[in-house]
Specification:
It is built from 9 helices and no strands. It has 206 residues and is mainly α. α1 runs antiparallel to α2, α3 crosses α4 and α7 runs antiparallel to α8. It starts with 8 loop residues before the first helix and ends with a helix.
């Protein structure tokens, strides 16, 4: 049996340090995904954000080649980088995310499609019909993968990230509450229920 090559520890440490520094710079450019909801802000940050995200992706690509055992661990971050670049109009990222969504690996394909849907949701923050179509697919995914922690987090995040209408927010929240079964999501479900209860009390006449 062929032995695996030893991991280049020094190079891994160098990449890890570069990733940390680059992520700090990226956070200065894009403090939160909420900024992507504003088309003007997207235009303003694109020229700085896209090259930084490309650099980060290259770091993770190299890291995965040096330490193949961790390659799958890096996929969520790399897929999110592609999502952000897609929202910013980067054609190369749009194509790469499309390829990931059509991967022969089911987990990779789901990761890719999930990030495509996130990009579509963010880009349609004022288009309830477009977001409703995204919600339709997210609902189908939730019913097919009720134990997915990643999907549960995505639903909870998008419910607060630029829903075009209160009904769309509630629809995604309902998927978290009634469809997703991941035990790790209990805290998220409790938060949603607490916020709904508070909202009812605020709207209740004295």
């Amino acid at each position: 049996m062929a032995q695996s090559s030893p991991v280049d520890g020094a190079r891994v440490k160098a990449i890890e340090a570069d990733v940390s520094a680059s992520e700090d710079k990226m956070h200065e450019i894009l403090p939160g995904l909420e900024l992507l909801l504003d088309p003007t802000a997207r235009t303003q940050i694109a020229s700085k954000a896209i090259p930084m995200l490309v650099h980060l992706s290259a770091d993770f690509d190299e890291w995965g080649k040096i330490d193949p055992a961790r390659k799958s661990e890096f996929l969520p971050a790399q897929a999110q980088y592609l999502m952000i670049r897609s929202v910013l109009g980067d054609k190369a990222a749009i194509d790469a995310l499309q390829a990931l969504a059509h991967s022969t690996n089911p987990d990779d394909a789901m990761q890719g499609r999930s990030e495509q849907l996130t990009a579509l949701w963010i880009s349609a923050t004022k288009d309830s019909d477009a977001q409703a179509k995204v919600a339709d697919e997210l609902e189908a995914m939730a019913k097919a993968h009720p134990q997915s922690d990643d999907l549960m987090v995505q639903l909870a995040t998008l419910s607060e990230l630029g829903p075009a209408t209160p009904e769309l927010r509630q629809r995604l929240e309902d998927l978290v509450l009634n469809v997703m079964k991941d035990p790790a999501g209990e805290e998220v479900r409790e938060r949603i229920l607490s916020e709904r209860k508070l909202k009812l009390m605020e709207n209740k006449p004295l």
